Amino acid sequence: MTRIGPYLISGKAVLAPMAGVTDLPFRQVCREMGAALVTAEMAASNPLLRNTLKSQLRLAQADEVGPRIVQIVGTEPGQMAEAAAYQVAAGAQIVDINMGCPAKKVCKKLAGSALMKDQALVKKILHAVVGAVDVPVTLKIRTGWDQTSRNAVEIAKIAEASGIQSLAVHGRTRACRFKGEAEYDTISDVVQAVCIPVFANGDITTAQKAVDVLAHTGASGVMIGRAAQGNPWIFKEINALIDNPAESCGLFTGKSLKLLEAKRVERLIINHLLHIHTFYSSYDLLNVDSKAKNSGNFLSDLSIKVARKHICWYFEQLKLSAGLTNKGQTSFTKDPDHLLRSNEQILSNIENKDAIRATSVVLETARSRFNKLESQSAQLDFLLQFFGELHTIGDKTT
Ligand SMILES: Cc1cc2nc3c(=O)[nH]c(=O)nc-3n(C[C@H](O)[C@H](O)[C@H](O)COP(=O)(O)O)c2cc1C
Questions:
Q1: pTM summary value
Q2: Other beta carbons less than 10 A from residue 322's beta carbon
Q3: Where is pLDDT greater, at 110 or 364?
Q4: Taking the mean position of all CA atoms in its chain, how far away is CA 208?
Q5: Are 210 and 237 part of one and the same domain?
Q6: Which end of the chain has the least Cβ crowding within 10 Å, N or C?
Q7: Does residue 253 belong to any structural domain of this protein?
Q8: Do 7 and 104 belong together in one domain?
Q9: Ligand 1 within 6 A of CB of 201
Q10: Considering the domain boundaries, does residue 182 fall inside one?
Q11: How does pLDDT run across 95-148, given as a tens digit for each residue?
Protein backbone atom coordinates (compact mmCIF):
# COMPACT_ATOMS: atom_id res chain seq x y z
CA MET A 1 0.00 0.00 0.00
CA THR A 2 1.20 3.49 -0.82
CA ARG A 3 -0.07 6.45 1.14
CA ILE A 4 -0.66 9.85 -0.45
CA GLY A 5 -2.12 12.08 2.25
CA PRO A 6 -5.38 10.46 3.38
CA TYR A 7 -5.44 8.09 0.38
CA LEU A 8 -4.18 4.53 0.62
CA ILE A 9 -3.32 3.29 -2.84
CA SER A 10 -3.36 -0.43 -3.49
CA GLY A 11 -1.67 -1.41 -6.72
CA LYS A 12 1.61 -0.29 -8.16
CA ALA A 13 0.78 0.76 -11.69
CA VAL A 14 -0.63 4.23 -12.32
CA LEU A 15 -1.61 6.08 -15.48
CA ALA A 16 0.60 9.01 -16.56
CA PRO A 17 -1.06 12.33 -17.37
CA MET A 18 -1.15 12.80 -21.15
CA ALA A 19 -2.61 15.92 -22.73
CA GLY A 20 -5.09 14.98 -25.44
CA VAL A 21 -5.25 11.38 -24.21
CA THR A 22 -6.18 10.99 -20.54
CA ASP A 23 -9.70 12.38 -20.70
CA LEU A 24 -12.42 11.01 -18.42
CA PRO A 25 -13.46 8.07 -20.64
CA PHE A 26 -9.87 6.85 -21.01
CA ARG A 27 -9.15 7.32 -17.31
CA GLN A 28 -12.18 5.21 -16.48
CA VAL A 29 -11.14 2.43 -18.84
CA CYS A 30 -7.68 2.39 -17.24
CA ARG A 31 -9.23 2.30 -13.77
CA GLU A 32 -11.39 -0.66 -14.75
CA MET A 33 -8.27 -2.37 -16.06
CA GLY A 34 -6.51 -1.95 -12.72
CA ALA A 35 -4.69 1.40 -12.80
CA ALA A 36 -4.19 2.32 -9.15
CA LEU A 37 -4.31 6.05 -9.89
CA VAL A 38 -5.17 8.10 -12.94
CA THR A 39 -4.32 11.74 -13.59
CA ALA A 40 -6.16 14.14 -15.85
CA GLU A 41 -4.47 16.12 -18.62
CA MET A 42 -2.52 19.20 -17.59
CA ALA A 43 -4.57 22.34 -17.06
CA ALA A 44 -3.10 25.80 -17.58
CA SER A 45 -2.79 27.90 -14.43
CA ASN A 46 -3.38 31.13 -16.35
CA PRO A 47 -6.87 32.34 -15.32
CA LEU A 48 -7.40 33.83 -18.79
CA LEU A 49 -7.51 30.29 -20.18
CA ARG A 50 -9.92 29.00 -17.55
CA ASN A 51 -13.08 29.10 -19.63
CA THR A 52 -11.73 27.53 -22.77
CA LEU A 53 -13.28 24.20 -23.68
CA LYS A 54 -9.92 22.51 -23.14
CA SER A 55 -9.64 23.81 -19.59
CA GLN A 56 -13.26 23.05 -18.75
CA LEU A 57 -12.97 19.48 -19.99
CA ARG A 58 -9.88 19.08 -17.80
CA LEU A 59 -11.62 19.96 -14.55
CA ALA A 60 -12.28 17.13 -12.09
CA GLN A 61 -15.44 15.30 -13.09
CA ALA A 62 -17.96 14.68 -10.34
CA ASP A 63 -18.74 11.12 -11.46
CA GLU A 64 -15.10 10.01 -11.46
CA VAL A 65 -13.86 7.47 -8.92
CA GLY A 66 -11.52 9.15 -6.43
CA PRO A 67 -8.99 10.24 -5.69
CA ARG A 68 -9.54 12.70 -8.53
CA ILE A 69 -6.15 14.05 -9.59
CA VAL A 70 -5.88 17.21 -11.63
CA GLN A 71 -2.54 18.44 -12.95
CA ILE A 72 -1.62 22.09 -13.18
CA VAL A 73 1.14 23.70 -15.19
CA GLY A 74 2.52 27.23 -14.98
CA THR A 75 5.32 29.50 -13.93
CA GLU A 76 4.22 32.02 -11.37
CA PRO A 77 3.89 30.85 -7.75
CA GLY A 78 0.86 33.05 -7.01
CA GLN A 79 -0.95 32.00 -10.17
CA MET A 80 -0.15 28.32 -9.55
CA ALA A 81 -1.46 28.60 -5.97
CA GLU A 82 -4.64 30.22 -7.19
CA ALA A 83 -5.04 27.60 -9.92
CA ALA A 84 -4.66 24.81 -7.37
CA ALA A 85 -7.34 26.34 -5.13
CA TYR A 86 -9.64 26.75 -8.14
CA GLN A 87 -9.16 23.08 -9.11
CA VAL A 88 -9.86 21.91 -5.56
CA ALA A 89 -13.03 24.01 -5.42
CA ALA A 90 -14.05 22.31 -8.68
CA GLY A 91 -13.58 18.85 -7.15
CA ALA A 92 -9.88 17.89 -7.38
CA GLN A 93 -8.82 15.68 -4.48
CA ILE A 94 -5.10 15.70 -5.30
CA VAL A 95 -3.28 18.45 -7.20
CA ASP A 96 -0.33 17.38 -9.29
CA ILE A 97 2.25 19.91 -10.49
CA ASN A 98 3.74 19.40 -13.93
CA MET A 99 7.50 19.87 -14.07
CA GLY A 100 7.94 17.04 -16.52
CA CYS A 101 6.54 18.29 -19.78
CA PRO A 102 9.02 19.36 -22.48
CA ALA A 103 6.37 20.77 -24.84
CA LYS A 104 7.50 23.99 -26.51
CA LYS A 105 4.51 26.08 -25.73
CA VAL A 106 4.87 25.28 -22.07
CA CYS A 107 8.64 25.63 -21.97
CA LYS A 108 8.67 28.96 -23.79
CA LYS A 109 7.22 30.34 -20.61
CA LEU A 110 9.63 28.38 -18.42
CA ALA A 111 6.98 25.99 -17.26
CA GLY A 112 6.87 22.19 -17.22
CA SER A 113 10.35 20.61 -17.06
CA ALA A 114 12.06 23.93 -17.89
CA LEU A 115 11.38 24.94 -14.29
CA MET A 116 13.89 22.37 -13.06
CA LYS A 117 16.62 24.76 -14.16
CA ASP A 118 15.60 27.25 -11.49
CA GLN A 119 15.57 25.53 -8.11
CA ALA A 120 14.71 28.72 -6.19
CA LEU A 121 11.60 29.19 -8.32
CA VAL A 122 10.68 25.52 -7.88
CA LYS A 123 10.80 26.02 -4.12
CA LYS A 124 8.57 29.10 -4.31
CA ILE A 125 6.00 27.36 -6.52
CA LEU A 126 5.86 24.27 -4.34
CA HIS A 127 5.49 26.28 -1.13
CA ALA A 128 2.81 28.47 -2.66
CA VAL A 129 0.75 25.55 -3.99
CA VAL A 130 1.06 23.38 -0.88
CA GLY A 131 0.07 26.35 1.26
CA ALA A 132 -2.95 27.17 -0.88
CA VAL A 133 -4.86 23.89 -0.64
CA ASP A 134 -5.77 21.38 2.01
CA VAL A 135 -5.48 18.36 -0.29
CA PRO A 136 -2.26 16.47 -1.08
CA VAL A 137 0.00 18.05 -3.67
CA THR A 138 2.19 15.80 -5.82
CA LEU A 139 4.91 16.60 -8.34
CA LYS A 140 6.00 15.18 -11.68
CA ILE A 141 9.56 15.84 -12.81
CA ARG A 142 12.23 14.63 -15.18
CA THR A 143 15.73 13.52 -14.15
CA GLY A 144 17.02 17.02 -14.82
CA TRP A 145 17.44 19.75 -17.36
CA ASP A 146 20.10 18.08 -19.48
CA GLN A 147 22.84 15.46 -19.16
CA THR A 148 25.08 17.89 -17.28
CA SER A 149 22.42 19.02 -14.84
CA ARG A 150 20.59 15.99 -13.61
CA ASN A 151 19.22 17.59 -10.48
CA ALA A 152 16.23 15.32 -9.81
CA VAL A 153 17.61 14.40 -6.39
CA GLU A 154 17.93 18.06 -5.32
CA ILE A 155 14.46 18.86 -6.64
CA ALA A 156 13.05 15.79 -4.86
CA LYS A 157 14.53 16.95 -1.55
CA ILE A 158 13.11 20.44 -2.05
CA ALA A 159 9.76 18.84 -2.86
CA GLU A 160 9.74 16.70 0.27
CA ALA A 161 10.72 19.65 2.46
CA SER A 162 7.95 21.73 0.85
CA GLY A 163 5.25 19.24 1.76
CA ILE A 164 4.88 17.43 -1.58
CA GLN A 165 3.36 14.02 -0.86
CA SER A 166 4.54 11.93 -3.79
CA LEU A 167 6.77 12.25 -6.83
CA ALA A 168 6.71 10.84 -10.33
CA VAL A 169 10.05 10.83 -12.13
CA HIS A 170 10.34 10.42 -15.90
CA GLY A 171 13.75 8.84 -16.57
CA ARG A 172 14.82 11.40 -19.15
CA THR A 173 16.17 14.92 -18.97
CA ARG A 174 14.27 17.83 -20.46
CA ALA A 175 16.85 18.00 -23.25
CA CYS A 176 16.18 14.34 -24.15
CA ARG A 177 12.52 15.14 -24.78
CA PHE A 178 11.38 11.66 -25.87
CA LYS A 179 14.64 10.61 -27.53
CA GLY A 180 16.88 7.77 -26.41
CA GLU A 181 15.96 5.32 -23.70
CA ALA A 182 14.73 6.27 -20.25
CA GLU A 183 17.26 5.52 -17.50
CA TYR A 184 16.31 4.35 -14.06
CA ASP A 185 19.51 4.92 -12.02
CA THR A 186 18.60 8.53 -11.29
CA ILE A 187 15.11 7.40 -10.23
CA SER A 188 16.79 4.93 -7.90
CA ASP A 189 18.85 7.79 -6.42
CA VAL A 190 15.67 9.81 -5.88
CA VAL A 191 14.03 6.87 -4.09
CA GLN A 192 17.07 6.65 -1.78
CA ALA A 193 17.07 10.39 -1.11
CA VAL A 194 13.47 10.92 0.03
CA CYS A 195 10.86 9.21 2.21
CA ILE A 196 7.79 10.15 0.15
CA PRO A 197 6.47 7.66 -2.45
CA VAL A 198 8.18 7.81 -5.84
CA PHE A 199 6.68 6.52 -9.11
CA ALA A 200 9.12 5.50 -11.85
CA ASN A 201 8.15 6.59 -15.35
CA GLY A 202 9.46 6.27 -18.88
CA ASP A 203 9.44 3.54 -21.53
CA ILE A 204 7.71 0.94 -19.38
CA THR A 205 6.02 -1.04 -22.10
CA THR A 206 5.43 -4.51 -20.66
CA ALA A 207 4.49 -6.09 -17.34
CA GLN A 208 7.92 -7.67 -17.12
CA LYS A 209 9.60 -4.31 -17.60
CA ALA A 210 7.40 -2.81 -14.89
CA VAL A 211 8.50 -5.51 -12.46
CA ASP A 212 12.15 -5.06 -13.46
CA VAL A 213 11.97 -1.27 -13.00
CA LEU A 214 10.33 -1.68 -9.59
CA ALA A 215 13.12 -4.04 -8.55
CA HIS A 216 15.85 -1.80 -9.96
CA THR A 217 14.61 1.46 -8.46
CA GLY A 218 12.83 0.40 -5.27
CA ALA A 219 10.06 2.82 -6.34
CA SER A 220 6.60 2.60 -4.79
CA GLY A 221 5.06 2.20 -8.22
CA VAL A 222 5.41 2.60 -11.95
CA MET A 223 3.70 5.22 -14.09
CA ILE A 224 2.60 4.11 -17.55
CA GLY A 225 2.02 6.58 -20.38
CA ARG A 226 2.22 5.71 -24.07
CA ALA A 227 2.11 1.97 -23.51
CA ALA A 228 -1.46 2.34 -22.22
CA GLN A 229 -2.69 3.95 -25.43
CA GLY A 230 -4.93 1.38 -27.07
CA ASN A 231 -3.59 -1.06 -24.49
CA PRO A 232 -5.17 -0.27 -21.11
CA TRP A 233 -5.06 -3.94 -20.10
CA ILE A 234 -1.34 -3.41 -19.44
CA PHE A 235 -2.40 -2.45 -15.91
CA LYS A 236 -4.08 -5.83 -15.41
CA GLU A 237 -1.00 -7.56 -16.71
CA ILE A 238 1.31 -5.67 -14.38
CA ASN A 239 -0.92 -6.32 -11.35
CA ALA A 240 -1.18 -10.00 -12.26
CA LEU A 241 2.56 -10.39 -12.72
CA ILE A 242 3.24 -8.71 -9.37
CA ASP A 243 0.59 -10.80 -7.56
CA ASN A 244 1.40 -14.09 -9.18
CA PRO A 245 4.66 -14.14 -11.13
CA ALA A 246 4.42 -17.80 -12.06
CA GLU A 247 1.02 -17.82 -13.72
CA SER A 248 0.27 -14.48 -15.21
CA CYS A 249 2.63 -14.27 -18.14
CA GLY A 250 0.79 -13.39 -21.33
CA LEU A 251 -2.64 -12.85 -19.81
CA PHE A 252 -3.69 -10.50 -22.56
CA THR A 253 -0.60 -10.11 -24.69
CA GLY A 254 0.72 -12.84 -26.86
CA LYS A 255 -2.16 -14.64 -28.47
CA SER A 256 -4.66 -12.21 -27.06
CA LEU A 257 -7.03 -12.77 -29.94
CA LYS A 258 -7.94 -16.09 -28.43
CA LEU A 259 -11.68 -15.92 -28.13
CA LEU A 260 -12.04 -15.54 -24.37
CA GLU A 261 -9.73 -12.55 -24.13
CA ALA A 262 -10.94 -11.11 -27.41
CA LYS A 263 -14.50 -10.95 -26.08
CA ARG A 264 -13.33 -8.98 -23.07
CA VAL A 265 -11.24 -6.72 -25.22
CA GLU A 266 -14.03 -5.96 -27.67
CA ARG A 267 -16.50 -5.19 -24.88
CA LEU A 268 -13.99 -2.79 -23.43
CA ILE A 269 -13.42 -1.08 -26.78
CA ILE A 270 -17.13 -0.71 -27.54
CA ASN A 271 -17.84 0.63 -24.05
CA HIS A 272 -14.97 3.07 -24.40
CA LEU A 273 -16.41 4.32 -27.70
CA LEU A 274 -19.87 4.76 -26.17
CA HIS A 275 -18.43 6.61 -23.22
CA ILE A 276 -16.46 8.99 -25.47
CA HIS A 277 -19.65 9.75 -27.44
CA THR A 278 -21.67 10.41 -24.29
CA PHE A 279 -19.01 12.35 -22.41
CA TYR A 280 -18.26 14.84 -25.17
CA SER A 281 -21.76 15.07 -26.68
CA SER A 282 -23.44 15.83 -23.39
CA TYR A 283 -20.79 18.19 -22.04
CA ASP A 284 -22.28 21.29 -20.47
CA LEU A 285 -20.94 24.27 -22.42
CA LEU A 286 -22.37 26.82 -20.04
CA ASN A 287 -18.99 28.11 -18.83
CA VAL A 288 -17.15 27.71 -22.10
CA ASP A 289 -15.98 30.73 -24.12
CA SER A 290 -15.96 29.63 -27.71
CA LYS A 291 -17.61 30.76 -30.90
CA ALA A 292 -17.54 27.22 -32.18
CA LYS A 293 -19.94 26.04 -29.49
CA ASN A 294 -22.79 27.69 -31.34
CA SER A 295 -22.39 25.35 -34.26
CA GLY A 296 -24.87 22.54 -33.73
CA ASN A 297 -22.57 19.54 -34.20
CA PHE A 298 -19.59 20.95 -32.36
CA LEU A 299 -19.49 18.47 -29.47
CA SER A 300 -20.59 15.51 -31.49
CA ASP A 301 -17.79 16.25 -34.02
CA LEU A 302 -15.31 16.47 -31.19
CA SER A 303 -16.44 13.09 -29.86
CA ILE A 304 -15.94 11.54 -33.31
CA LYS A 305 -12.39 12.89 -33.53
CA VAL A 306 -11.47 11.72 -30.03
CA ALA A 307 -12.95 8.29 -30.76
CA ARG A 308 -10.90 7.97 -33.96
CA LYS A 309 -7.68 8.46 -32.04
CA HIS A 310 -8.42 5.90 -29.33
CA ILE A 311 -10.07 3.26 -31.49
CA CYS A 312 -7.26 3.43 -34.06
CA TRP A 313 -4.80 2.86 -31.23
CA TYR A 314 -6.76 -0.24 -30.26
CA PHE A 315 -6.50 -1.56 -33.80
CA GLU A 316 -2.74 -1.01 -33.76
CA GLN A 317 -2.41 -2.84 -30.48
CA LEU A 318 -4.65 -5.70 -31.61
CA LYS A 319 -2.44 -6.01 -34.65
CA LEU A 320 0.60 -6.33 -32.42
CA SER A 321 -1.17 -8.89 -30.26
CA ALA A 322 -2.15 -10.90 -33.30
CA GLY A 323 1.46 -11.19 -34.36
CA LEU A 324 3.10 -11.83 -31.03
CA THR A 325 3.74 -15.02 -29.18
CA ASN A 326 4.18 -14.90 -25.43
CA LYS A 327 7.92 -14.96 -25.98
CA GLY A 328 7.85 -12.29 -28.63
CA GLN A 329 8.36 -8.77 -27.39
CA THR A 330 8.30 -5.52 -29.19
CA SER A 331 8.90 -2.04 -27.93
CA PHE A 332 6.08 0.45 -28.12
CA THR A 333 6.18 2.56 -31.21
CA LYS A 334 3.84 4.78 -33.09
CA ASP A 335 5.88 4.46 -36.26
CA PRO A 336 3.80 2.32 -38.66
CA ASP A 337 6.87 1.28 -40.65
CA HIS A 338 8.44 -0.04 -37.50
CA LEU A 339 5.21 -1.83 -36.73
CA LEU A 340 5.30 -3.54 -40.09
CA ARG A 341 8.98 -4.38 -39.72
CA SER A 342 8.46 -5.91 -36.30
CA ASN A 343 5.48 -7.84 -37.58
CA GLU A 344 7.64 -9.15 -40.41
CA GLN A 345 10.29 -10.30 -37.95
CA ILE A 346 7.71 -11.99 -35.79
CA LEU A 347 5.99 -13.58 -38.75
CA SER A 348 9.21 -15.18 -39.82
CA ASN A 349 9.56 -16.82 -36.43
CA ILE A 350 6.17 -18.27 -35.78
CA GLU A 351 3.90 -20.87 -37.21
CA ASN A 352 0.53 -20.19 -38.72
CA LYS A 353 1.94 -17.27 -40.68
CA ASP A 354 -0.90 -16.98 -43.16
CA ALA A 355 -3.65 -16.63 -40.57
CA ILE A 356 -1.66 -14.09 -38.63
CA ARG A 357 -0.79 -12.13 -41.75
CA ALA A 358 -4.49 -12.16 -42.66
CA THR A 359 -5.43 -10.87 -39.21
CA SER A 360 -2.87 -8.11 -39.49
CA VAL A 361 -4.22 -7.01 -42.85
CA VAL A 362 -7.82 -7.11 -41.61
CA LEU A 363 -6.93 -4.99 -38.57
CA GLU A 364 -4.97 -2.47 -40.61
CA THR A 365 -7.85 -2.15 -43.09
CA ALA A 366 -10.27 -1.71 -40.21
CA ARG A 367 -8.09 0.98 -38.66
CA SER A 368 -7.93 2.88 -41.89
CA ARG A 369 -11.69 2.56 -42.53
CA PHE A 370 -12.61 3.57 -38.99
CA ASN A 371 -10.45 6.65 -39.35
CA LYS A 372 -12.72 7.91 -42.12
CA LEU A 373 -16.10 7.38 -40.47
CA GLU A 374 -17.97 10.61 -39.92
CA SER A 375 -20.78 9.97 -37.48
CA GLN A 376 -21.18 8.43 -34.06
CA SER A 377 -23.62 5.82 -35.32
CA ALA A 378 -21.30 4.84 -38.18
CA GLN A 379 -18.47 4.37 -35.67
CA LEU A 380 -20.59 2.21 -33.38
CA ASP A 381 -22.10 0.12 -36.20
CA PHE A 382 -18.65 -0.44 -37.65
CA LEU A 383 -17.23 -1.79 -34.41
CA LEU A 384 -20.22 -4.05 -33.74
CA GLN A 385 -19.99 -5.54 -37.20
CA PHE A 386 -16.20 -5.73 -37.21
CA PHE A 387 -15.95 -7.68 -33.99
CA GLY A 388 -18.55 -10.13 -35.25
CA GLU A 389 -16.33 -10.83 -38.25
CA LEU A 390 -13.16 -10.95 -36.17
CA HIS A 391 -14.47 -13.97 -34.27
CA THR A 392 -14.21 -15.98 -37.45
CA ILE A 393 -10.58 -14.97 -37.84
CA GLY A 394 -10.01 -15.58 -34.12
CA ASP A 395 -11.32 -19.12 -34.59
CA LYS A 396 -8.89 -19.70 -37.41
CA THR A 397 -5.85 -18.39 -35.57
CA THR A 398 -6.35 -20.40 -32.39
C1 LIG B 1 0.69 12.68 -25.88
C2 LIG B 1 1.40 12.94 -24.58
C3 LIG B 1 0.93 13.93 -23.73
C4 LIG B 1 1.57 14.18 -22.51
N5 LIG B 1 1.04 15.11 -21.68
C6 LIG B 1 1.58 15.28 -20.44
C7 LIG B 1 0.95 16.12 -19.50
O8 LIG B 1 -0.10 16.72 -19.74
N9 LIG B 1 1.54 16.25 -18.28
C10 LIG B 1 2.71 15.59 -17.95
O11 LIG B 1 3.21 15.74 -16.83
N12 LIG B 1 3.30 14.76 -18.83
C13 LIG B 1 2.76 14.57 -20.05
N14 LIG B 1 3.30 13.68 -20.91
C15 LIG B 1 4.45 12.86 -20.47
C16 LIG B 1 3.97 11.52 -19.87
O17 LIG B 1 3.21 11.73 -18.71
C18 LIG B 1 5.13 10.59 -19.55
O19 LIG B 1 5.96 11.21 -18.60
C20 LIG B 1 5.98 10.25 -20.76
O21 LIG B 1 5.17 9.91 -21.87
C22 LIG B 1 6.95 9.10 -20.48
O23 LIG B 1 6.26 7.96 -20.09
P24 LIG B 1 5.95 6.74 -21.12
O25 LIG B 1 7.27 6.32 -21.72
O26 LIG B 1 5.33 5.67 -20.26
O27 LIG B 1 5.05 7.27 -22.17
C28 LIG B 1 2.71 13.43 -22.15
C29 LIG B 1 3.19 12.45 -23.01
C30 LIG B 1 2.54 12.18 -24.20
C31 LIG B 1 3.06 11.09 -25.10
A1: 0.88
A2: 25
A3: 364
A4: 18
A5: yes
A6: N
A7: no
A8: yes
A9: yes
A10: yes
A11: 999 997 766 555 556 666 678 888 999 999 999 999 999 999 999 999 998 878
